[in-house]
Amino acid sequence: MPEGYVPLFIFLAVAILFPVVALILAKYIRPDVPSRVKLEAYECGIQTASDSRARYTVRFYIIAILFVIFDVEAIFLLPWAVRYQVLGWFGVAEVAVFLVVLAVGYVWAYKKGALEWI
Which alpha helices (DSSP H) does the chain contain, by range? Predict the structure, then answer.
């Protein structure tokens, strides 16, 4: 075995053993006195009103997915910003096309009513 991999295996062993040892140690050190109140779901001190497995409307998921999509598309501007001076006007044109496509998608989603909360 090449000697260059020894530090890697040591690091891997420490990375695996540290959390395992910490969890086992915490299990034996912490007090374990379960009660009905401690085993309830945390609701900011408010008594739970209903089952937490209630169905959500599909509109909630659509808005969440649209939010993630628009955020991820905005992240694509970072490489352009890093290479802005090298790309020149060609890079500006590329970003302009990208932003137009993003704006068209946003307007389309708005006109379809996908961004309405109620």
Answer: 6-29, 58-75, 77-82, 84-112
Domains of the chain, CATH where assigned? 3-112 (1.20.58.1610)
Residues 52, 41: contact at Cβ < 8 Å? yes
Closest CA to 14 of 4, 2, 6: 6
Helices 84-112 and 58-75: angle between axes, nearest 10 degrees: 170
* Helix, strand or coil, per DSSP, at residue 4: helix
What does R_g of the chain's alpha carbons equal in angstroms? 26
> What pLDDT score does 31 carry?
87
Q: How far apart (Å, rounded) are the C-alpha atoms in residues 49 and 52?
A: 9
d(CA 59, CA 81) in angstroms, rounded, equals 34
Amino acid symbol at 68: V
pTM of the model: 0.45
Distances from the Cα of 39 to the Cαs of 25, 32, 35, 46, in angstroms? 22, 12, 6, 14
pLDDT tens by residue, 68-91: 887 887 788 888 888 878 888 888
